[in-house]
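Subject: Interface between my chains keeps coming out wrong

I've been trying for a while to get a sensible model of this assembly. When I model each chain on its own everything looks fine, but I need the whole thing in one frame so I can look at the contacts. Pasting all components below, labels as-is. Any help appreciated, I'm running out of ideas.
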Amino acid sequence: MSITDLTSRAEAQVAERKEINERLQKLQEEVSDFCYQCAKCTSGCEAHKLLELEPHKIVALLKRGLIDEMINSDMIWTCMSCFKCKERCPQKVAPVNILFTLKNLAVASGKQVPGDFTAMLQSAMGIGLIQDIQTVPTRAGETKTREQAGLPPCSKPKDPAKFQQTIMTVAMEKV
Amino acid sequence: MTKYALYPGCLMPTEQYGYEVSMRSTLPLLGVELVDLEGFSCCGEPLKSINQMLTLTLSARNLAICEKEGLDILIPCPMCHLALSETKKILREDPKMKERINSKLAGEGLVYKGTSKLFHVIDLLHDVIGLDAIKEKVVKPLSDLNFATHYGCHLFRPSELGRPVDSENPQKMENILEVLGAKADDYAEKLDCCGGPLLPVHPETSLTKTGQKLQSIQEQGFSGMALSCPWCHKMYDSKQKKAGETVGAKLNVPVLYLTQLIGLAFGVEEDKLALDLNLSPVEKVLEGDQGVGS
Amino acid sequence: MKRIGVFVCHCGVNIASKVDVKEVAEYASKLDGVVFAKDYKYMCSDPGGKLIKDSIKEYDLDGVVVASCSPRMHEHTFKNVAEDGGINPFNVEITNIREQCSWAHEDRDEATRKAKILVRASVAKSSLLESLEKSKTPVTHEALVIGAGIAGIQSALDIADDGFKVYLVEKEPTIGGRMAQLDKTFPTLDCSSCILTPKMMEVKNHPNIELMTYSEVTKVEGSVGNYKVKVKKKARYVDLDICNGCFDCTTACRISGHVPDTFNLELGKRSAAYIPFPQAIPLKATIDPDHCLMLRFGKCGDGPLCVKACEPDAIDFTQTDEEVELNVGTIIVATGYDLLNPEKLFEYGYTRSKNVITTLELERLISTSGPTEGDVVLLSSGEKPRSVTFILCAGSRDETKCTWCCRIGCMSVLKHVYLLREKLGVDVEINICYTDIRSFGKGYEEFYRTIRGKGVNFFRGRPSEVRVHPENVTIDIFDTTTNKLFEIGTEMVVLVPALVPRADSEEFSRILGLSRSGDGFLLEAHPKLRPMDTFVNGIFIAGCAQGPKDIADTVAQASGAASRAAAILTKDELENDPLIAWVDPEICVGCGVCVEVCAYSARTLNEVTGIADVDEALCAGCGACISACPSNACTHKNYTKQQLIRMIDEVV
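Reply #2:
Try treating it as a single job with all components included. I did that and got this:
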């Protein structure tokens, strides 16, 4: 009554696997069980050549219930979300959405979020946008503001406090 | 004039001014009135890795703002267009989720119903305005120019959600360029990603991806690259120099927004297309041997 | 008052585990009219039958209710038993307490309660059942086989050998079908034509086979034993009795070399006057109306060259389509398959590069009767390819395209490897991108082993796309055997597309009244036990019309279908099921509504009596006329309104 990875001593996490499948179904995605490992996803994966992401392996590990292995790995953060895997999967499995779900789980379990995601989140919470309005360079080596480019003011949440409240409550929630 | 709510997203209104300026200069010439609304926020797609509920809520929030005005929505950013389309689909098919999201939006006095239609610049131009209407306005055909088109992955994938262009053989931008007098040959890397979504985590790799595609386009002798995504433009234009350094190549590919090219063909003055903000050598297209001005 | 016996079956544990069968029998024994009730482990077994027969005698029963499985399974069994026991078999009523009760419910008490209600309703109906007699219809001892590929040929030959006349209808100008387009067959590498053409000759020479090529079935009426079939013989513009198959017209044709050669999948060109291939049967010319200048514009230069060239004077531009009517006892449908249109696999580059082809196209390139006379060349340059890459499961096993396995792809590719090694030598690089190699048939796995020894690069994986560059084609493939991503630079790509139903299969199935399965192929009556039967009595299916299969399976099924058909043809008459419509002559006003709604042409207005008759042989007992009849004159024998209302009364 147990399945153990003899290299890492990890055991299949049946409950977590079920939870992920339920989440995917709520997002109207096909569950991973239908995958037959043709690896069409990895053949076309934009991130594979540079960062060795193997979407078909992500699906296989999920099927096997080795969730922690993935959540603790930086690998899940290498997806470029180009959606080629979902587009072309012959079994309508969407590795890209499995990866989103795994990243969400990693964040929820307090794993360090790599790169600039935290900055983007903080900015979004503060002003509603993932970055503030920039002054941009021109080809001639000068700079221009949004206003100087002749553009009207940028649309932002009208009541930042209420907006933050919305975001804060949602940020804690599961799908 | 047909009114559309302009949902700008984050990247275009905070740094990709060339897109916004050229769009505001060209679309009204084709009978489109862009309506600016207050109160928008990020669509949530860039934060999908953190929490997918956040994406659903933020997208529904922005849709609700437009619905209040009873307007269909123009979304210039493919990523925002994907987030809003996906949210629409999920909330249409899952009433419980819709209820849950609406309870979140209530704090700001917003209700999501799902009544607005969504458009990107490409399908608005190609399918609503139509090629004939565009052709009529061309006064300076972009003759002798051959552009490599780049749509932005999220504009054509995943097709299951119903995207503005075909997922495997997108041709709408090609058709538009053709009526502008230019060519747009297919190339093997056409559907490849710019690397942009990786920028927050693996900047170096992200730029390698950008550089590789630019290098290939340069080798194939295209006059330039035509774009319809602010993220991809950031990679191919704003970061072209860095991308070249990453792949060890000297890149000089003119990169322009499709709306800028339309403006040029319509005879719109260059400063109204913000062409000074393109950091790639667009003068090659503007003034070169095969340039528009010649 | 009828004396009814109720027999409750356990079906092992299939019923007994969810329904308290003893309680049901006990309950039934107390119902009005029931003089005996008993449960038994397997009512369909010999002892079960004996129980029923003995009880009929002992209790002098004249009605029998069997509570068991679906009537589709054993109604026949129990009717026979009752008849043996000495009562009219139409006094047997089946209550389905398995499919509709024990298999459908979890709760034992509730299932038992439902079983009791169902039995009560059956007993009520049983008391009103009438004894019926079976009428008989004579059988037409002739058969129709539609489609003359290897399946149709085999079926036709078998039936003809049994001594019955067969009409073999083929829509193309020649028989032979897909198999005629193949070069060699797996796993034995038999030359396809060499084994097919003798059978084609046999068809041509068989005294019992009447061949109708370039013809299409347009209408089917009637029922088993007596089908009336309309066949459109398309105008060929060549008199078959005169044409001697000399090919003079095909060489003389003014637009020779300008018409896409459909037999060669448009890889080559032919004339408007053509014979598909040298071994065509019948070896007669056909003039293609879509391209012939005479037929399109009424003028061909200063006169049609084919006419001038034809020594026996066989060409006749005045010919028109002709309709013939056939009377047959039984029909075999063997209409074959198409390949999935490879243009639908845009990512695999078929529309973007001439050097991306399909397996069937490669087959024509390999064949010495093909457009290149057997030279395997790149369509872009005419040069021999230095590398060939196969992509298996192109659209097969794919929820977005064709969900099924094509069943021939793996083996056909292995065969091609063998043939390419022969044609192009040991130096040509051969790559196979596969997901699973399915080599399940006799001798197939051994053949796979042979090919593994032929220096082939097997990549276990599926490419995401084929990239077409100006100079060559590249394929990125992640190989799960080495866990590495490879880029294959190749000159020729061969796609192995999914097998799909014929493009016209929907319309065609409607003409014959056949059902199709979800994949669009024709549906068999039972996937295991009645694989050649359809739901229409007397119409059988063979070959890929029913689903993808290889030649060996096709021939086996074709012979099976022929033997099923012969079982009907050997009878002089067939018993008609008396469970059909009946018209009360006292009520019928002859309005003719029933005639309009009848899909089986069983209803006609009798001009003498002024009322609507029922043809007992044609009526399928579908009930359409009964619900349509505005004056309630139609009833269904033993499914009368009175009987059904009694049942409903017992249930609610």
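Reply #3:
Confirming on my end. Residues 95-108 of chain A form the longest helix (14 residues).
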